[in-house]
Amino acid sequence: MTSALKRWPPEQEIQHMKEAARDSLPVERRKQEGQIWGSMRRTGFILGSGLLMFVAFWNSVTWHLQRFWGASGYFWQAQWEKLFHAFEGKEWILFYLGATLIPTLCFWGFNALLLVVDTTGKPNFIARYRIQEGKNDPVDPGKLRQAVRLVLFNQLAISFPMVIALYPCLRWRGNPCRLELPTFHWFLLELTIFTLIEEVMFYYSHRLIHHPLLYKHIHKRHHEWTAPIGVVSLYAHPVEHVLSNMLPVILGPLVMNSHLSSITVWFSLALIVTTISHCGYHLPFLPSPEFHDYHHLKFNQCYGVLGVLDHLHGTDAAFKQTKAYERHVLLLNFTPLSESIPDSPKKKE
Ligand SMILES: [Zn+2]
Ligand SMILES: [Zn+2]
């Protein structure tokens, strides 16, 4: 019985199979190599054409923007020259108007609109984009007054003196009120660098003030709002306001020896973006505030602005498991994301 089993398959058959396997091996390998080569070629083709399209797209976008900038650039250059000559010898006045007044007006103008929704719940078409359902509906007036008082204190007693001190530092580096405006490409490069500096400085200073020793004395203030609103973006302990709000934004222009025009746009943009990330509404066609809103809800996730450093340090691991993460996209239609991506039924119970 055993010998019969041993003999099956027969010797010749085994030999034949071995030979067949040997012959087919290179064929198999060739086939595999062919497949690998084919997929590499496909990947190369996709990547290559993708890159080509990106370069073509980027070039045409910047070309159009530059053309627009070039055409309107003369207009802005002429306006700037008028201001420059009107304030000749007193450029510091121009600097303080551009670096404090305009960004502050942007901040309060935008926040005034948001506060109408926070205090009245109207118009309803905005209120329906609220991220944390049922929160700040309407916002507590006492809590709001206290927040506005601290924000005004931070702006008047900290932001303004810091921007005043920034002027001699910029003068030491060069002249922020020089006659020639920066080119559009240079301005884009500056914005990229400002954003990267802010991401690094905000992330690490923010994680530092989350250390138990510092948290209760400093950062707890900002986290009193587990469901934030726009103005709360600057509701912070003065030490935090210097360390996490002001320095990360001020340092970029100092490094780049920027023109006042870049500084005005950057400060205004930074204030509008931080207001959006705290506003509590995920509105169409605006950057998603889900990331920082989740930070206020859970405290130990999502410390940065862009999310790059959170990804590298794994401080967004729990966030990535949530509905908030699924909703963390640029909303390109008018259906609120809480409707198109509803909470799972278990969560609602
Ligand atoms: Zn915050
Ligand atoms: Zn925090």
TrEMBL record:
One example GO MF annotation: oxidoreductase activity
One Gene Ontology cellular component: membrane
Domain of life according to the entry: Eukaryota
Coiled-coil region(s): none
Subcellular location: Membrane
Regions that span the bilayer: 45-65, 93-117, 150-168, 184-204
One example of a Gene Ontology biological process annotation: lipid biosynthetic process
Keywords: Membrane, Transmembrane, Transmembrane helix
Main localization of the protein described in the UniProt heading: membrane
Ranges of residues in domain Fatty acid hydroxylase: 192-315
Name assigned to this protein: Fatty acid hydroxylase domain containing 2
Highest classification ranks of the organism: Eukaryota, Metazoa, Chordata, Craniata, Vertebrata
